[in-house]
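Exam revision sheet. Question 4 asks you to relate a sequence to its structure. Input first:
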Amino acid sequence: MTRRIINFRKTGEYHRRDDEVHHQRLYDTATIANALQQLGFGVQSTHSYGEYKLSPSHAVFIARRLS
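Answer key, structure tokens:
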């Protein structure tokens, strides 16, 4: 997914233009968890942050390096 953002900011009497391009890759939860485990991390995933529930398409990962 590619997102292009154009911003105009006023600086004095002129406007400054900023262009940003963001490239995103989307992965499923299992792919991320498996990659972290292969790198030596213990992994938990959840779809909430505290009591705040995330949308089904978002996940939180808790990863700790295993000794």
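Marking note for examiners. The beta strands are 2-11, 14-23, 41-46, 48-49, 52-53, 60-65.
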